[in-house]
Amino acid sequence: MIAVLERMGRCGRGLGLALALCLLPAWVAAADSGRSFTLGVVPQFEQRKVFAIWKPIADELSRRTGLDIRLAVTLTVPEFEAGLEKGSYDFVYANPYHILRSSDVQGYIPLVHDREPLRGILVVRRDSPVQKVEDLAGRTLAVPSPNALGASLLLQADLNRLFNTTMNAVNVQTHSSVYLNVLNGLTDAGGGVEKTFSEQDAGIRNALRILYTTRAMPSHPVAAHPRIPAEVRERLRKAILDMAATPAGKALWEEVPMHVPVTTSLDDFLVMRKWGLETYWVPARK
User: Fold this and answer.
1) Which of 172, 223, 198, 55 is CA-nearest to residue 118?
2) Hey, which CATH number is domain 118-216, 3.40.190.10, 3.90.1150.10, 3.40.50.720, 3.40.50.300?
3) Under CATH, what is the fold of the domain 29-116+219-280?
C-alpha cells in the first residue's frame, strides 16, 4: 500500500511539474526556444548614429528582460514604413501617426512614450531675408521623409490651412540632412521637430532660425505587435521605465531623445485622426 502511495505521489509531482510548465509565461517559452525579438527604429538620423544610440538600449533591455532583442535599422524611412506595414517588427519606435495608421492593419500597441510632447518646426538660415511663413510660398522645403509627422505632415497641413502657403517638399532622408540642406543653402527652408533640432551641434543650431512651431502632439512611442504575448509586452514596458529611473539608463534614453518615458496607450494618439493628415500622406511604393 505504501509503495502504491509513493508511486501516486511521484505521478502527482510529475503531473504538477507538467502543469507548471504548461502555465509558464510565453516569454519564458520564447527565451528557452532561442527566439529573438526585433526592435525596428525609425531612422530620424543617419544609420550609424541611429545604431550608436539604439544598440546600447537594445542590449540593456535584453539584459533586463532576459529576451534576445535585436535592433533592426533601415537606411530610409520608406523602407522602415514598408516593414511596419507588413508587421515585420516585434517592437518598434515610430512616429505617432505611423502607429495610428497601422492600428487598423497590424495593430501595434503603444507601451511608452516621452512625457514631453512633440512639436514640428519650420527652420530657415539665420541670415535669411524670410521673416514670415507666407514669404516661403512656392519655395523648397527639405523634409526627412514625406510622412514624418511633425516635420512634414502636420507642418505642410499648417502651411496650407493656416497660412494659405504651399511649398515644394524635397525628401532628404533624415532630420540631420534637413538642417544641413538649409544651412548650406540647398533648400529655402526645412521641416524638423524640436527634439531632433536640439540634438544638432551648437554650430548648426546657431546658424538656423525657427520661423514657425506647430501645435503639440504625443511623442514617438515604443510599441509592440499584438502577436507578442501580453507578458512580454509588460516585461518590456517595465524594463524601459526601470531603466530610465537610473542615471545610466536615463542618459541612454535622452540620446533618442526620450527624456522621461511614461506609460501610454493608443487612446493618447486618437486625437490626430481629426487633423486631416491623411491628405498629405504619401503611400509607400509597391
Assistant:
1) 198
2) 3.40.190.10
3) D-Maltodextrin-Binding Protein; domain 2 (3.40.190)
Q: Which residue has the cell 531612422?
A: 43
For residue range 159-206, what is the model confidence (pLDDT) as tens digits?
Answer: 999 999 999 999 999 999 999 999 999 999 999 999 999 989 999 999
Taking only the tens place, the pLDDT of each residue in 209-218 is 999 999 999 9
| Fold equal for 29-116+219-280 and 118-216 | yes
Domain chopping of the chain, boundaries: 29-116+219-280, 118-216
Main-chain dihedrals φ then ψ at residue 39, nearest 5 degrees: -120, 105
Question: How is the chain split among helix, strand and coil, in percent rounded to 5?
Answer: 50, 20, 30
Angle of helix 230-244 versus helix 47-65 axis, rounded to 10: 110
Give the pLDDT band (50/70/90) at residue 283: confident
Mean pLDDT, to the nearest integer, of 255-270? 95
Q: pTM to 2 decimals?
A: 0.81
Q: Is 36 helix (H, G, I), strand (E, B) or coil?
A: strand
Complete edge-to-edge strand list for the sheet that includes strand 168-171: 168-171, 140-143, 189-193, 118-125, 208-217
Task: Find the mean pLDDT for residues 108-136.
Answer: 97
Q: How far from chain centre, in Å, is Cα 15?
A: 45
